[in-house]
Amino acid sequence: LNMEGCTELESLPKRLGKQKALQELVLSGCSKLESVPTDVKDMKHLRLLLLDGTRIRKIPKIKSLKCLCLSRNIAMVNLQDNLKDFSNLKCLVMKNCENLRYLPSLPKCLVYLNVYGCERLESVENPLVSDRLTLFLDRSEELRSTFLFTNCHNLFQDAKDSISTYAKWKCHRLAVECYEQDIVSGAFFNTCYPGYIVPSWFDHQAVGSVLEPRLEPHWYNTMLSGIALCAVVSFHENQDPIIGSFSVKCTLQFENEDGSLRFDCDIGCLNEPGMIEADHVFIGYVTCSRLKDHHSIPIHHPTTVKMQFHLTDACKSKVVDCGFRLMYTQSRVCLLDEEINANFTKLYF
Questions:
Q1: Exposed site from 144, 237, 311, 326, fewest CB < 10 Å?
Q2: Locate the C-JID domain: which residues (predicted)?
Q3: 107, 131 in Cβ contact below 8 A?
Q4: What secondary structure letter does DSSP report for 292?
């Protein structure tokens, strides 16, 4: 059912929920619409709900819903707390919600979040995603996920710390899953938010776009499952709007006395045209498939790694700081380190 652009529409039929077979409901641009009937929660097959450009503040819990769009909503200030109970929601888009100030805990199945341009957003719930103490992925959960907070300039430091902590936890979680299911490629996570500091959990850091850590002997072992990379990108010298998309990438070169290996990794990308004024922190996780596919780097020798961070199609923007961490998996019990455990203990016990 597509009612896009019905700018005079003020209400929907109260028995809309009786449409049991409806899979997609499009109400984009219905600028006078302030609510949806509560009985839409009874829809068993509704997968897609587009409410961008409306004034709707609350959505009844629709368990079947997989994609929800609330972009350009000027009425919403706080996103409803029961969103974490939308048990099948995988995609949430809330771009340019100019009055949004708060994000609650999100569904654990969510794999795509975009709150680009929510300039008044101040805080996000910690934990950012519900049930974070679950140490392993549901078999149905996707291994690729993206959480974007681009141009959310008013985020409190606590909110940025929550996003960073979630990124660390997600990297650990993917490392465990890839190790236990013997997945060598395909897993990817990235996030970005306004900021100028590489999070402290990256144990190798450098000023500028080049990082050259020295890895001790036996750094490569069967527990190594992924690589976490971080780049702080400055947009201050870019006075022109960004046209199209750009990507943040890293070229890695591993060398020791017996061999070398070179490959590229994606850290993240943005597809939103316009001005990005503040520095942003980009964090990405990739699996170690390139290392596992090559045996030219003996694991028993010290190894030097040269990392060159760079941007594609982003004129005058540059990487000003960077970070790197090898992600090892241990037993499930040891997965969460002291920092994450401490945060969760305060929240749950």
A1: 237
A2: 194-331
A3: no
A4: H
pLDDT tens per residue across all 349 residues of the chain: 999 999 999 999 988 888 889 999 999 999 999 999 988 888 999 999 999 999 999 999 999 999 999 999 999 999 999 899 999 999 999 999 999 999 999 998 899 999 999 999 999 998 888 754 444 444 445 578 899 999 999 999 999 999 999 999 888 888 777 767 666 555 688 999 999 999 999 999 999 999 999 888 778 776 787 889 999 999 876 656 565 578 899 999 988 777 788 888 889 888 877 778 789 999 999 887 666 655 555 556 778 899 999 998 756 788 999 999 988 876 433 444 444 444 433 433 3
3-state secondary structure of 39: helix
Cβ atoms of residues 308 and 209 within 8 Å? yes
Residues 329 and 198 in one domain: yes
The answer to whether 172 touches 132, Cβ cutoff 8 Å, is no
Supply the Cα-derived Rg of the chain in whole angstroms.
22
For residue 174, the 8-state DSSP code is H
Domain that holds residue 325: 188-348
pTM equals 0.87
Q: Name the residue among 71, 21, 62 with its Cα closest to residue 38.
A: 62
* Residue partners of 48: CB distance under 8 A and separation at least 6: 23, 24, 25, 26, 65, 66, 67
Pair (217, 308) in one structural domain: yes
Asked whether residue 157 is domain-assigned, the answer is: no
Determine, yes or no, domain membership for 126. Answer: yes
